[in-house]
Amino acid sequence: MHVLIVEDDSPLAASIATAMQARGWRADVSDRGEPVPASLLQDAYDALVLDIGLPGIDGLETLRRVREQGSLLPVLMLTARDEIDDRVRGLECGADDYLVKPFAIRELLARLSALVRRQDQRRSETLILSALRFDAAARRAHVNEQPITLSARECIVLQYLMLKTSHIVTRDQLAGLVPGWAAGTSENALELLISRLRAKIEPGGVRLRTVRGLGYLLEPAVPE
Amino acid sequence: MRRSLRPSLRRDLLLWLLLPLLLLVPLTAALIYGLALRPALDGLDRALTDTAVALAQIVDVKDGQATLPLSEQTARALQADLVDETLFAVGDSTGRLLGGNAALLTLSTSLQAGQWRFFDSVLDGKPVRVAAHAIHCGSVPSQVCSILVAETLGKHHAAQRAVLLASLLGAVALALPMALMAMVAVSRGMRPLRLAATELASRTPSQLEAIDTRAVPHEVVTFVDALNDLFGRLRDVAAAQRAFVADAAHQLRTPLAVLRVEAAQALDSPHPPALRPTLERLHSAAERGARLAQQLLLLARAEATAIDPTQPRQLVDLSQLVTEAADRWLQPSIEADQDLGFELAPAWVEGNPLLLAELLGNLIHNAIEHAGAKSRITIRTGMQNDNAQLIVEDDGCGIAADEQASVWQRFRRARSAKGTGSGLGLAIVKDIAQLHGASATLATGEDGHGLHVRVSFPASSAAAPANE
């Protein structure tokens, strides 16, 4: 993975770069926002880590210029100022995610991986989590390369859970997926569907958790 | 005692209005008495002249000698009076008594013919009012007869009493409404001050907007202007504090991020086993420092928000806030081997979503940190009557009843607290709750163990969106 870090505080930039390199990623550092759009055209980056407080044009303006040239690159913003939080929080600025300093490096790397994976899946139409693979176009799932049979509803639910890997999906969200479900589906029916699905996919190194009172969460059985 | 020493506008005004009034009542009464008595007495004098004129008609001149041919009946008729004793005397120019009372005639003074005189005197030891009159009685102009009519003072005294009573009643009837009006006027005049004081007293520390001077009386404007000036300066201080917090945040957060990243990195990199305890302590201190800085900045921000009325407020659904935050807290609770669950119903409050999210985060963090492994943590939202509720409860080790009040203080931690918390979490919860007019309470769980934290928000003035 190849990441561009835009951060004017050189110790922090170096720290993040070192942590990425320790994972086997490639990391480049820029301390200003102005050259970023050109850099993205030159090199094939997988993701951009962008600090908001930069000398010259700030992170938000840099992001605007990046998006202006048509780039869909996953962008994770770093912020230290509460005032800007509110704009970034809604991700209205075109960023995909944000972290408030001081963050834990584990979290930064995990979020970045998730962003890149989501981007890849958007392109390939195939969702992969551990040994579970879901082909969205064909509506077929494989566990350890063995096809598994899924009902139409299970397909819809699994696809949604995989798109939101490691995030809680609420019961309301699931109930809203299929027309006619929201009103008619009892909680028991959904619970039953989930437990059948759980039995089918958990051999593939994934865990389908029940979040009591709220919903469900699909994650790798072993943390990445 | 001390109260009476304090200067009082109201007392001064009343004193200066009522004291002169008190002096004016007898003065006015005296003036009215003096003015009204004279005509009354003049009337009585005129009654005496009537008798004298009647007598003058009776005086006759025969052979150059004046006589008074007065029958007994006429004399009685002239002296008839219900109240007073009336006497008369008629004498000629030589002082000879023509008729009537001899003693009275001795009081006669020399008058020109046609002249009148009225005077007070004493007759037979009784005070009397006397009318003296002189008429021609003879062929020679020098022949002048004196007619005197005297009357005891019964009617005089009655008239004096009546006039005195009338003037006193008049003065009091004037003074009483004036005193009442003075009191009402002072009270009314003081009302704008009282209203302004009530308005100021009911303000929260965050209400620093200027007082509207349009309704303030002219005389009080300078005072209110000074207050508004003070409010303005306080607002500036709040703004300066916010700017400082923002700068401090920026300056502090980046080096702390480096420290956190490097400490974690060092721990993950190959290192001599002897270094491990050091690296672990470094890592834990970095984590603690980062959280402490975050909390201190948040506290400062909450306080700056509290005194800055320009902070926007919006309608927030607590259940939505919890749903959004759930992702962040699920993983730590799983790592702590806890069962984190939710019972969410819509609960609308008016407030600052950023600060409310921090309040929630602190409560959940506390529960995960202190409830212990195998515990069950449940987050509830909903309405109770008109009040939005946020409840975080666990069945962990709880907080002793005698400590439940003190843990809200800054840097205060429960004796049972594990880990390395700063003791700021609940203080932040309390500050943010207060900022939203909410009450935060802490209790032991239902079955005698664990902790039950409830934040109850005041009824929102704005209605919840209808389609939610």
Task: Kindly describe this structure.
The complex is a heterodimer of chains A (224) and B (468). Chain A is an alpha/beta fold and 224 residues long. Helices cover 42% and strands 24% of the residues of chain A. Chain A contains 9 helices and 12 strands. Chain A is elongated, with a radius of gyration of 20 Å. With 468 residues, chain B is of the alpha+beta class. Chain B is built from 10 helices and 14 strands. The chains are: A alpha/beta (224), B alpha+beta (468). The interface between A and B is medium-sized, with 33 and 37 residues.
Order of strands in the sheet with most strands of chain A:
2-1-3-4-5
How large is the radius of gyration of chain B?
Answer: 51 Å
How many strands of chain B?
14
Q: Helix/strand-derived class of chain B?
A: alpha+beta
Over the alpha carbons, how many angstroms does the gyration radius of chain A reach?
A: 20 Å
Question: What percentage of residues of chain A falls in helices of 4 or more residues?
Answer: 40-55%
- Unreliable runs of chain B, pLDDT <50, ≥5 residues? none
Q: What is CATH's topology name of the largest domain in chain B?
A: Beta-Lactamase
Please tell me the CATH architecture of the largest domain in chain B by its name. 2-Layer Sandwich
Question: What characteristics describe this protein?
Answer:
heterodimer; A: 224 residues; alpha/beta; Rossmann fold; Arc Repressor Mutant, subunit A; five-stranded parallel beta sheet; 12 strands; elongated; B: 468 residues; alpha+beta; Beta-Lactamase; Heat Shock Protein 90
Write a brief caption for the model.
The complex is a heterodimer of chains A (224) and B (468). Chain A has 224 residues and is an alpha/beta fold.
